[in-house]
Design a protein that fits this description.
single chain; 404 residues; alpha/beta; Glutaredoxin; 3 domains; six-stranded mixed sheet; 18 helices; 61% helix; 8% strand; globular; disordered N terminus
Length: 404
């Protein structure tokens, strides 16, 4: 009888629970997330006390908490309502959506803020958050709300560069050229001033300029930027970085290069990327010690689950570092075993992973994570400077629609 009563009451209890969850205010939701963030930070700080397998278990706990932080934020975004919200509540919701990396939602929430509370367009942190989430997916909207003169000169330069990338990615070459010109004019001004010159990462700007020039159909200019930089930046590390920039230009728009794989994980037989046809492929360049790569795994999993198309696949690409977590001086075989038996399983990766000596260099990768998109014909169509998962998903869906 008691069992029957429980079954009768259970639906009502679930409804009550859901209603309570919906009734949680943005301030309370942010409080929950802040507590999870502190708990994860405490787990990280305890790492130095651990050794051996205890260290690995503590690292797993840290990443589990970070992923719980993201998953909780994703859940909260499903409860959002906007009518009769205060300015403070709207900003908290944009912060929560930012944790969940729902970039379009972040942009939409902040635009509600801008429209309801016009003075908010002068709030620097809010404008920064809007720009970083919107420049790839709705650069035309940014023009309506952002006054670029409110940024320090170095950031203003970066904004113009990113908007040029955003417009070029959407195929609006006219607008892309407009912001490319603004970037170049401001860069010339900054270089002339010794004090301002020191505030800008010139090598990074070379990387962006060359990529934008390539996208705008000016490959000769793209290569020229790099060759000119080689005359000025002569250290070995700088020259190597510029070589990577050159390799990017060689990769984009051409057939995908084979991966120099010594070990595969998560596949019964080796994959030859240069012979895979009819599939859109997302290459995820990562390393086990790249915290951002691991924390961002839920977003790749979300894309994989949402697209759920037999003609789409993700391939992880990593390199040998000669160690794993707190274990030093490993052979390639030993590091592979750690990656296969610990990393791959504990991070719950469901796609194949290539361990390679040369792929990072061949593809011009200097930072992780970096994403490369390959179309059904095996041609590299996009990549580099993509940290926007809404853009990534949209681009994959467009490539899947193309005939092969």
């Amino acid at each position: 009888m008691r069992k029957n009563v429980l079954w009768i009451l259970l639906p009502g209890l679930i409804i009550i629970s859901c209603n309570l969850q919906k009734a949680v205010t943005p301030e309370e939701q942010q409080g929950v997330l802040d507590n999870l963030k502190v708990e994860a930070a405490n787990a990280y700080n305890e790492l130095h006390e651990k050794t051996g397998n205890d260290y690995l278990a503590q690292r797993d706990r840290y990443y589990a908490l970070k992923h719980k932080w993201i998953k909780t934020a994703e859940g909260f975004t499903k409860t959002f309502t906007y009518d009769n919200r205060t300015e403070d509540e709207i900003r908290r919701m944009s912060y929560i959506a930012d944790i969940a990396k729902k970039e379009q939602l972040v942009a939409d929430i902040i635009k509600i803020d801008f429209n309801r509370f016009p003075e908010s367009v002068t709030v620097f942190d809010l404008v920064q958050r809007y720009f970083s989430n919107a420049y790839l997916i709705e650069p035309q909207e940014i023009e309506k709300y952002v006054n670029f003169k409110m940024f320090p000169k170095g950031e203003e330069l970066y904004c113009y560069a990113m908007l040029s990338l955003g417009f070029s990615g959407l195929g609006n070459i006219l607008k892309a050229n407009e912001y490319f010109g603004k970037m170049n004019n401001l860069l010339a001004e900054l270089i002339e001033d010794p004090n301002l010159r020191r505030t800008i990462p010139l090598l990074h700007i070379v990387s962006i300029r060359s990529l934008v020039a390539w996208r705008l159909g000016e490959p000769d200019l793209a290569y020229k930027y790099i060759e000119d930089a080689k005359k000025e930046f002569t250290r070995e590390s700088e020259q190597l970085l510029l070589e990577l920039y050159t390799n990017r230009l060689k990769v984009l728009g051409n057939r995908a290069l084979s991966l120099g794989t010594q070990h595969w994980i998560g596949t019964k037989k080796p994959l030859n990327i240069s012979t895979i046809k009819g599939k859109v492929i997302l290459l995820d360049f990562f390393t086990w010690n790249c915290e951002t790569c691991i924390i961002n795994l839920p977003f790749l999993k979300r894309i994989n689950n949402q697209i759920h198309n037999k003609d789409f696949m993700i391939i992880g690409v990593t390199e040998y570092l000669g160690r794993y977590e707190n274990v030093e001086n490993l052979s390639e075989e030993q590091e592979y075993n750690y990656m296969k038996n610990h990393f791959y399983k504990k991070r719950k990766i469901s796609w194949p992973v290539s361990m390679s000596k040369i792929s990072r260099y061949d593809y011009g990768i200097n930072i992780a994570p970096t994403y490369i998109l390959i179309d059904k014909a095996g041609v590299v169509r996009d990549g580099y400077f993509i940290s926007n998962y809404t853009y990534l998903k949209n681009k994959i869906e467009l490539l899947l629609k193309e005939d092969y």
